[in-house]
Each structure stands twice: as structure tokens, then as C-alpha cells.
Design a protein that fits this description.
3 helices, alpha+beta, 94 residues, globular
Length: 94
């Protein structure tokens, strides 16, 4: 189960990089996503909510401009759920 989660995490990071979003090549299942733009982050937030994903937008001092989203994958998330997250993020990149 842990190996599957690590593999799914690495694949998700690969997809984020393919979208032009920074993502380190780590198997740690925490994904940070930002467009470095408040309006685009707001659009991403709206898309996530429309798709039943409840995003934690983090906007602490020192955070990227416009804040960032932090998603934590777990072994309980299905491939379909992770795909829905990545597809929603991809929509916000268009």
C-alpha cells in the first residue's frame, strides 16, 4: 500500500510538472500547488469546489503570492480521486 501511494505521488508530481507547475521529485504525498497569481488561484479554488474537492488555501506570510493549495494524498484515495484532482488542476492552467 505504501509503495502504491509513493508511486501515485510521483506520477502526480510528474503531471504537475508537465502542466508547468513546480513540484519536487519526492515520494512524500504532500502536493503544493500555486499559480503565483491571486485571480488564477481563485479560479482553481472554484473549479476544485465544483468538483467536490475542498481545498486548503494557505496564505501565510512568506507563502507564494496569491497563496498556495496543499493537498495530502493517502493510501485511501483512489486512482479516480487523484485523477479528478489532477484534471481539475489542469483546467485551471488553460
Amino acid at each position: 500500500m505504501i509503495t502504491d501511494l509513493q508511486q501515485r505521488t510521483l506520477q502526480a508530481r510528474e503531471r504537475l510538472r508537465a502542466l508547468g507547475l513546480p513540484s519536487c521529485p519526492s515520494p512524500v504525498p504532500i502536493l503544493s500547488v500555486t499559480h503565483h497569481d491571486e485571480a488564477r488561484n481563485q479560479r482553481l479554488r472554484e473549479l476544485l469546489l465544483e468538483n467536490g474537492i475542498y481545498p486548503p488555501l494557505i496564505d501565510y506570510p512568506g507563502s507564494p503570492q496569491g497563496g498556495h493549495f496543499r493537498f495530502t494524498l493517502s493510501g485511501l484515495h483512489t486512482g479516480e480521486e487523484v485523477e479528478r484532482l489532477l484534471a481539475t488542476i489542469a483546467l485551471s492552467c488553460e
